[in-house]
Amino acid sequence: MANTFVPGPTYEEMRHPEKIRPDIRAQAQQALHSDELNPINLFNIHWKDAQNRVRYVVLPEELTGVEANIIVLVGKDFPSGSHKVGPVYTTLMEAEVMEGVRPGERVVVGPSTGNFGIGTAYVARLRGYQSLVVMPDSMSAERYERIRKYGGDLDLTPGSEADVILTLERTHEVYMKDPRYLVLAQFELLPNYRFHRYVTGWAVIEAAREVGNKRVDAFVCAPGSAGTIAAADEILTYYPDAVIVALEPRECPTLYNGGQGQHRIEGIGDKMVTLIHNVLTTDYIMLIHDDDSVKGLKVLQDGTDVLVERLGVPREVAASWRGLFGISSVCNIIGAIKTARFLGLGRGDNVVTIATDGFDRYPSVMADLEQRRGPIDADRLEMWARGIFRGATTQEILDVRSREQKNRLFRMKEALWTRFGYSEAYLRQMQSQDFWDAEYAKIPEIDRRLRALRGW
Question: Please, is 368 exposed, middle or buried when counting C-beta atoms within 10 Å of its C-beta (0-12, 13-18, 19+)?
Fold first, then answer.
C-alpha cells in the first residue's frame, strides 16, 4: 500500500453522510461492525446512523433533576470507538491533499492522552502508515491495548492526564522537526477545529431541532485539545444567544484560575489553553469533581436497577445507557445539568453535550474505583446518583465573557505557545473572530482538492 492514496470522505460528506456515493455508503455501513480494519470505514466518520439521524439520547428528569432537556450526542459508534477519529482523519487528509504526503513516506505521530492516540493508530492502519502515539504512562490499560491492537507504537511520558504538557514537550523536541515524522498535532493544528466546527457543530444543531424548543440554548463541553468545543462557533452562527460552557476538573482548574493539579478524567483538563481553543466564544468555565465523573459512570453502567426502582427512570431507558458513556462523557453530563440549573432553564429548553467515547475503555478504572471505595452496593449507587446528578450544584462557575477574562486567557495561551515557536503576531490574530472564520472558510477548497485527488 506504500505511496497509494486511500480515499476518504470530504468535510461535506462527514457533515451530510447522505451525500456519500450510495454504493460507498452501503459498503461502509456493512463494514462498521463486521470488518473494522476495512479502509471503507473512513466513510463512517460522522455522527449519523443508517437512517441519517444524529446519534443522541435525551436524559430524563428522573435522573437529572432539571426540567430542561439534556441532549447527549453519542460518539462510541464512530470507527475506533470515539469521535476523536474525526480530527485524526482530517489532519492526515489535509496533509495528503494540501501537501502531497503519501503512505510509506513518513511515520504518523499522535500526541494524546488516549482517544486521539487510538484514532491515530486506527486511521494510520487503514491508510497504510506506520504510527506512533506519544502519551502519558498512567492512562487506562484499555487505551494502550487498543493502540497496540491497531499496530501503533507507544512513546510514554511520565504522569497522567494532567501531565500532557510533558507529552507536548516530547513531541516538539523529538518528532516535530524530524522529516521522518508527520505529527498530527491535535492541540495546535486547525483541522481539529475545522472538523468539530463544521461536522460536530452541525450535528448538535440537527439533534436539538428534534427536541423541545428545537434550538440550542446551551452547549457544554470539557476541553482536552479544545477541538470539540469548536462546535460552539457553528452553533452561534445559528443561535447567537446560546451559552457556551467549558468544563474542567476541580482538581486541575487551569482555565478557571491557573491551577495545575492531578485528576482522573481521561481526555480533558490538559493544563493549558490549547492553541486551537477559540476562547472568544466561551462564556463560562465550570468545575466538575473528577471522582464524581468516575462514580457517575459506575451508576450509569451498573446501576440500572437502582435507577429504575429508586429514582423512577424507565427501565428501557436506564438499560440503554449501558456501554454508551465514558468518564469524560459523565463529566459533560454533570456539567450540562449544572448549566441548566445555573441558567434557570425550564421545560422545552435544550442543553447539548457530547459523549466522546463509550465504556469499553474504562473497566480498569471501575476496578480501581472499587479498590479505592470498597464494595459498591445499591444504597451507595443510589446515594451517588442522587448526589452527583440530581444534586449537581451551581457552585464553581466563572464568567469569562469580559474583556479582562479574555485577555487573561490570551496571556496564558501566549505564554505557552511562544515556547513552541509560535509568534506573538500569529497569536494576536487569534484574538479576532476573523481568524477563526478564515480558517473555517478553507473547507470548500480542501474538499475540492480531495474530490479531484480521489477522482469522484
Answer: middle
List the beta bridge partners of residue 135: 156
Please give the single-letter amino acid code of residue 245.
Answer: V
For residue 87, give the C-alpha cell.
480530527
Three-class SS of residue 14? Answer: helix
d(CA 60, CA 71): 10
> Crossing angle for the helix pair 304-311 and 290-302, nearest 10 degrees?
90
**Residue 261 scores a pLDDT above 80:** no
Distance CA 161, CA 163 (A): 5
* Residue 114 banded pLDDT, cuts 50, 70, 90: confident
**56-59 and 69-74 strand pairing:** antiparallel
Tell me the C-alpha to C-alpha distance, in Å, between residue 271 and each of 187, 261, 281.
Answer: 12, 8, 20
Q: Which residue, 208, 455, 209, is CA-closest to 219?
A: 208
Domains of the chain: 56-80+200-399 (3.40.50.1100), 85-185 (3.40.50.1100)
pLDDT in tens, 432-455: 999 999 999 999 999 999 999 999
**pLDDT (tens digit per residue) in 149-169:** 999 999 998 875 556 778 889
Spatial separation of the C-alpha atoms in residues 79 and 214, rounded to whole Å: 29
Cβ–Cβ < 8 Å for 330, 222: no
**Closest CA relative to residue 437, chosen from 447, 429, 425, 426:** 429
